Known about the structure:
Number of strands: 0
Oligomer: single chain
Radius of gyration: 22 Å
Strand content: under 5%
CATH architecture of the largest domain: Orthogonal Bundle
Mean pLDDT: 82
CATH topology of the largest domain: MetI-like fold
CATH superfamily of the largest domain: MetI-like
Number of domains: 2
Largest sheet: none
Low-confidence stretches: none
Amino acid sequence: MNLIKKLMNFMIGMIVLILLWQVIIWIGGYEEALLPSPLSVGEAIITLIVNGTLFIHLKVSLGRFIAGYLLAVIPAVLLGMVLGRTPRLWNIIDPIVQVLRPVSPVAWSPFIVLWFGIGNMPAIAIIFVAAFYPVLLTTVAGVKKIDRSYLKIAENLEIKKMQLMIKIIFPAAFPSVVSGLHLALGTAWIFLVAGEMVGAQSGLGYLIVDARNTLNLDYVLAGIVFIGVCGFLLDRLIGLFEQWVGKHWGRFSN
Length: 254
Protein backbone atom coordinates (compact mmCIF):
# COMPACT_ATOMS: atom_id res chain seq x y z
CA MET A 1 0.00 0.00 0.00
CA ASN A 2 2.84 2.35 0.89
CA LEU A 3 4.51 1.55 -2.44
CA ILE A 4 1.31 2.40 -4.32
CA LYS A 5 1.13 5.77 -2.56
CA LYS A 6 4.73 6.53 -3.46
CA LEU A 7 4.09 5.62 -7.09
CA MET A 8 0.99 7.82 -7.12
CA ASN A 9 2.92 10.74 -5.64
CA PHE A 10 5.66 10.23 -8.22
CA MET A 11 3.17 10.21 -11.09
CA ILE A 12 1.40 13.32 -9.77
CA GLY A 13 4.73 15.11 -9.45
CA MET A 14 5.70 14.19 -13.02
CA ILE A 15 2.32 15.36 -14.37
CA VAL A 16 2.68 18.70 -12.56
CA LEU A 17 6.20 19.10 -13.97
CA ILE A 18 5.02 18.38 -17.53
CA LEU A 19 2.14 20.82 -17.19
CA LEU A 20 4.46 23.56 -15.90
CA TRP A 21 6.80 22.83 -18.79
CA GLN A 22 4.00 23.24 -21.33
CA VAL A 23 2.67 26.38 -19.62
CA ILE A 24 6.14 27.97 -19.80
CA ILE A 25 6.20 27.28 -23.55
CA TRP A 26 2.75 28.85 -24.00
CA ILE A 27 3.50 31.93 -21.89
CA GLY A 28 6.98 32.49 -23.34
CA GLY A 29 5.91 31.72 -26.88
CA TYR A 30 8.98 29.55 -27.38
CA GLU A 31 9.45 27.77 -30.69
CA GLU A 32 10.38 24.08 -30.88
CA ALA A 33 13.92 25.06 -31.88
CA LEU A 34 14.38 26.93 -28.59
CA LEU A 35 12.39 24.81 -26.13
CA PRO A 36 10.90 21.51 -27.39
CA SER A 37 7.47 20.58 -26.10
CA PRO A 38 6.84 17.56 -23.83
CA LEU A 39 5.26 15.77 -26.80
CA SER A 40 8.39 16.24 -28.96
CA VAL A 41 10.64 15.07 -26.14
CA GLY A 42 8.34 12.10 -25.54
CA GLU A 43 8.69 11.12 -29.20
CA ALA A 44 12.48 11.45 -28.90
CA ILE A 45 12.47 9.23 -25.80
CA ILE A 46 10.44 6.56 -27.62
CA THR A 47 12.80 6.73 -30.60
CA LEU A 48 15.89 6.32 -28.39
CA ILE A 49 14.28 3.34 -26.65
CA VAL A 50 13.09 1.65 -29.85
CA ASN A 51 16.37 1.98 -31.76
CA GLY A 52 18.37 0.83 -28.72
CA THR A 53 20.51 3.97 -28.48
CA LEU A 54 19.36 4.67 -24.94
CA PHE A 55 20.36 1.27 -23.59
CA ILE A 56 23.78 1.42 -25.24
CA HIS A 57 24.63 4.77 -23.61
CA LEU A 58 22.87 3.93 -20.33
CA LYS A 59 24.82 0.69 -19.95
CA VAL A 60 28.10 2.54 -20.43
CA SER A 61 27.16 5.33 -17.98
CA LEU A 62 25.97 2.94 -15.28
CA GLY A 63 29.12 0.85 -15.65
CA ARG A 64 31.31 3.91 -15.21
CA PHE A 65 29.22 5.18 -12.32
CA ILE A 66 29.20 1.91 -10.38
CA ALA A 67 32.95 1.47 -10.83
CA GLY A 68 33.82 5.01 -9.73
CA TYR A 69 31.27 5.09 -6.92
CA LEU A 70 32.38 1.80 -5.36
CA LEU A 71 36.05 2.66 -5.75
CA ALA A 72 35.36 5.86 -3.79
CA VAL A 73 32.82 4.67 -1.21
CA ILE A 74 34.53 1.53 0.09
CA PRO A 75 37.92 3.10 0.93
CA ALA A 76 36.20 6.29 2.16
CA VAL A 77 34.14 4.32 4.70
CA LEU A 78 37.12 2.24 5.86
CA LEU A 79 39.41 5.26 6.09
CA GLY A 80 36.71 7.31 7.80
CA MET A 81 36.24 4.66 10.48
CA VAL A 82 39.99 4.61 11.18
CA LEU A 83 40.39 8.39 11.17
CA GLY A 84 37.33 8.83 13.35
CA ARG A 85 39.02 6.66 15.95
CA THR A 86 42.35 8.52 15.75
CA PRO A 87 41.65 12.22 16.42
CA ARG A 88 45.31 13.27 16.28
CA LEU A 89 45.78 11.85 12.79
CA TRP A 90 42.47 13.32 11.65
CA ASN A 91 43.46 16.77 12.91
CA ILE A 92 46.44 16.62 10.54
CA ILE A 93 44.52 15.25 7.55
CA ASP A 94 41.37 17.37 7.99
CA PRO A 95 42.93 20.64 6.69
CA ILE A 96 44.16 18.80 3.59
CA VAL A 97 40.67 17.39 2.96
CA GLN A 98 39.03 20.78 3.52
CA VAL A 99 41.36 22.39 0.95
CA LEU A 100 40.84 19.71 -1.71
CA ARG A 101 37.12 19.08 -1.15
CA PRO A 102 35.77 22.39 -2.59
CA VAL A 103 37.71 21.92 -5.84
CA SER A 104 35.33 20.79 -8.56
CA PRO A 105 36.21 17.35 -9.94
CA VAL A 106 35.93 18.80 -13.46
CA ALA A 107 38.80 21.17 -12.57
CA TRP A 108 41.05 18.12 -12.46
CA SER A 109 39.92 17.00 -15.93
CA PRO A 110 42.99 18.36 -17.82
CA PHE A 111 45.28 16.26 -15.62
CA ILE A 112 42.89 13.29 -15.59
CA VAL A 113 42.79 13.19 -19.39
CA LEU A 114 46.61 13.44 -19.53
CA TRP A 115 47.02 10.64 -16.97
CA PHE A 116 44.27 8.27 -18.11
CA GLY A 117 43.69 9.26 -21.73
CA ILE A 118 40.30 9.16 -23.48
CA GLY A 119 37.70 6.53 -22.59
CA ASN A 120 36.17 5.17 -19.40
CA MET A 121 38.91 6.08 -16.93
CA PRO A 122 38.53 9.90 -16.99
CA ALA A 123 34.82 9.62 -16.13
CA ILE A 124 35.53 7.01 -13.43
CA ALA A 125 38.26 9.21 -11.93
CA ILE A 126 35.93 12.24 -11.84
CA ILE A 127 33.23 10.14 -10.15
CA PHE A 128 35.79 8.94 -7.61
CA VAL A 129 36.80 12.49 -6.70
CA ALA A 130 33.15 13.59 -6.46
CA ALA A 131 32.04 10.70 -4.24
CA PHE A 132 35.05 10.24 -1.96
CA TYR A 133 34.93 13.34 0.24
CA PRO A 134 31.22 13.32 1.26
CA VAL A 135 31.45 9.71 2.43
CA LEU A 136 34.76 10.25 4.20
CA LEU A 137 33.57 13.31 6.11
CA THR A 138 30.20 11.88 7.14
CA THR A 139 31.82 8.62 8.25
CA VAL A 140 34.37 10.44 10.41
CA ALA A 141 31.59 12.59 11.91
CA GLY A 142 29.46 9.50 12.59
CA VAL A 143 32.30 7.68 14.34
CA LYS A 144 33.04 10.71 16.50
CA LYS A 145 29.40 10.89 17.63
CA ILE A 146 29.23 7.29 18.85
CA ASP A 147 28.03 6.98 22.43
CA ARG A 148 31.10 6.35 24.59
CA SER A 149 29.16 3.82 26.67
CA TYR A 150 29.14 1.44 23.67
CA LEU A 151 32.92 1.59 23.51
CA LYS A 152 33.31 1.10 27.25
CA ILE A 153 31.11 -1.99 27.15
CA ALA A 154 33.15 -3.34 24.25
CA GLU A 155 36.35 -2.65 26.18
CA ASN A 156 35.00 -4.47 29.24
CA LEU A 157 34.08 -7.45 27.07
CA GLU A 158 37.58 -7.36 25.55
CA ILE A 159 36.26 -7.24 22.01
CA LYS A 160 39.05 -7.24 19.44
CA LYS A 161 39.62 -4.18 17.25
CA MET A 162 38.33 -5.79 14.06
CA GLN A 163 35.16 -7.03 15.78
CA LEU A 164 34.79 -3.63 17.42
CA MET A 165 34.80 -1.96 14.01
CA ILE A 166 32.35 -4.42 12.47
CA LYS A 167 29.92 -5.00 15.36
CA ILE A 168 29.96 -1.68 17.24
CA ILE A 169 31.46 1.25 15.35
CA PHE A 170 30.08 0.65 11.86
CA PRO A 171 26.47 -0.05 12.97
CA ALA A 172 26.51 2.96 15.31
CA ALA A 173 27.92 5.26 12.62
CA PHE A 174 25.77 3.81 9.84
CA PRO A 175 23.11 6.60 9.77
CA SER A 176 25.86 9.13 9.10
CA VAL A 177 27.46 6.82 6.53
CA VAL A 178 24.14 6.50 4.66
CA SER A 179 23.79 10.28 4.63
CA GLY A 180 27.18 10.44 2.97
CA LEU A 181 26.19 7.74 0.48
CA HIS A 182 23.17 9.79 -0.59
CA LEU A 183 25.22 12.97 -0.94
CA ALA A 184 27.98 11.18 -2.81
CA LEU A 185 25.52 9.52 -5.17
CA GLY A 186 23.92 12.79 -6.20
CA THR A 187 27.25 14.57 -6.61
CA ALA A 188 28.90 11.69 -8.45
CA TRP A 189 25.96 11.25 -10.84
CA ILE A 190 26.08 14.94 -11.73
CA PHE A 191 29.79 14.85 -12.43
CA LEU A 192 29.50 11.58 -14.35
CA VAL A 193 27.62 13.52 -17.02
CA ALA A 194 30.20 16.31 -16.89
CA GLY A 195 33.00 13.76 -17.23
CA GLU A 196 31.35 12.15 -20.24
CA MET A 197 31.04 15.56 -21.84
CA VAL A 198 34.79 16.11 -21.45
CA GLY A 199 36.59 12.91 -22.39
CA ALA A 200 34.22 10.21 -23.61
CA GLN A 201 32.67 9.02 -26.85
CA SER A 202 29.71 7.26 -25.27
CA GLY A 203 27.33 7.53 -22.32
CA LEU A 204 24.43 9.80 -21.43
CA GLY A 205 26.63 12.88 -21.22
CA TYR A 206 28.02 12.21 -24.67
CA LEU A 207 24.45 11.62 -25.93
CA ILE A 208 23.52 15.14 -24.83
CA VAL A 209 26.63 16.72 -26.35
CA ASP A 210 26.13 14.88 -29.63
CA ALA A 211 22.47 15.97 -29.79
CA ARG A 212 23.46 19.56 -28.99
CA ASN A 213 26.05 19.58 -31.77
CA THR A 214 23.39 18.49 -34.27
CA LEU A 215 20.88 21.01 -32.81
CA ASN A 216 18.42 18.25 -31.81
CA LEU A 217 17.26 19.88 -28.60
CA ASP A 218 14.43 17.37 -28.18
CA TYR A 219 17.09 14.66 -27.84
CA VAL A 220 19.05 16.89 -25.45
CA LEU A 221 16.01 17.13 -23.18
CA ALA A 222 15.36 13.40 -23.61
CA GLY A 223 18.88 12.77 -22.32
CA ILE A 224 18.25 15.12 -19.40
CA VAL A 225 15.06 13.20 -18.55
CA PHE A 226 16.96 9.89 -18.59
CA ILE A 227 19.66 11.34 -16.34
CA GLY A 228 17.09 12.64 -13.84
CA VAL A 229 15.12 9.39 -13.72
CA CYS A 230 18.27 7.28 -13.34
CA GLY A 231 19.54 9.51 -10.54
CA PHE A 232 16.18 9.21 -8.79
CA LEU A 233 16.20 5.40 -9.07
CA LEU A 234 19.79 5.12 -7.86
CA ASP A 235 18.98 7.23 -4.81
CA ARG A 236 16.02 4.95 -4.07
CA LEU A 237 18.34 1.95 -4.28
CA ILE A 238 20.50 3.52 -1.55
CA GLY A 239 17.32 3.91 0.50
CA LEU A 240 16.46 0.22 0.01
CA PHE A 241 19.99 -0.71 1.07
CA GLU A 242 19.57 1.42 4.18
CA GLN A 243 16.31 -0.33 5.05
CA TRP A 244 17.84 -3.77 4.46
CA VAL A 245 20.78 -3.04 6.74
CA GLY A 246 18.45 -1.47 9.31
CA LYS A 247 16.27 -4.57 9.41
CA HIS A 248 19.36 -6.76 9.67
CA TRP A 249 20.44 -4.83 12.76
CA GLY A 250 16.92 -4.56 14.13
CA ARG A 251 16.62 -0.80 13.63
CA PHE A 252 13.40 -1.10 11.65
CA SER A 253 10.39 -3.26 12.12
CA ASN A 254 9.31 -5.69 9.40
